[in-house]
Every structure is written in structure tokens, then in C-alpha cells.
Specification:
alpha+beta, 131 residues, 5 strands, 17% strand
Length: 131
């Protein structure tokens, strides 16, 4: 059910993945597709919006570039840090902005206002309560 293919993912990498990396990449595509379906809806593989495919490819490529979840790398006197990864390090994940996009494509609304009622966010759903 992946929304993108291994060949499409290879096109986003700056190296040719070896067989073990290709196996990991196939799993990353599945995981990223599951995230897209969870945050949006389950589209048919051949009718998923192009943006969903893009998000899946971005997430899988991000994971393949750093599968061990390093938040800092040092070589000689150079240090490289990824401070925005946090608890998602070493996993297939969507950024906050990427999480919002599949829901918008699926027609989910972010807020809800009903006369005399307000929406309170509970996890990913809204609960209506009297004001």
C-alpha cells in the first residue's frame, strides 16, 4: 500500500542504496504511507494526491539519511547538529507542517465553532463543550 515506489525514492537520494538499504527503504515507504493515511485518509494507491506521494518520499528519504537517529555528528573540528529532530530521531516521521497537509487534503477541518459552543482539542479530535 505504499504511495511511492522504491525507484522514486532512489531518485531523491544522492547515493545508490545497497540491497540492505533497499530493504530498509521499502519498510520506510510503508511506514510513511501509513502515517499519511493516519493523518489524512486511506487513499487508493493510484489515486492518492501528488502531495501525499511527496510527503511519503520526503519522510522516507529523511529516515534513510539518518536511520540511527543521530542528533549530532563530529568529524575533526567540524560538528553538525540536527536540533529539530528531537524524539523522532531514528524513526520515519512527518514534521508538524507535514502532519497537517494530509488532513487538509482529506478535508479535515482544524477548528470548529458552533454558536454557544467551543471546540477543545483532545489528541487529534475535537470535542464540543458548552461555553
Amino acid at each position: 500500500m505504499p504511495y511511492a515506489t522504491l525507484d522514486e525514492l532512489k531518485g531523491r537520494l544522492d547515493w545508490d542504496p545497497d540491497p540492505d538499504e533497499q530493504r530498509i527503504a521499502a519498510g520506510a515507504l510503508e511506514d510513511a504511507s501509513d502515517l499519511a493515511a493516519t493523518y489524512g485518509r486511506e487513499w487508493a494507491e493510484d489515486s492518492a494526491p501528488r502531495l501525499v506521494k511527496t510527503l511519503v518520499l520526503k519522510s522516507a528519504a529523511r529516515y534513510l539519511r539518518n536511520p540511527n537517529g543521530y542528533t549530532q555528528s563530529r568529524a575533526g573540528d567540524e560538528t553538525l547538529a540536527w536540533s529539530d529532530i528531537g524524539r523522532d530521531a531514528g524513526t520515519v516521521y512527518f514534521t508538524r507542517e507535514e502532519i497537517r497537509l494530509p488532513g487538509a487534503l482529506a478535508g479535515h477541518r482544524e477548528t470548529c465553532q458552533v454558536r454557544g459552543t467551543k471546540a477543545i482539542r483532545r489528541r487529534r479530535n475535537y470535542v464540543l463543550v458548552d461555553e
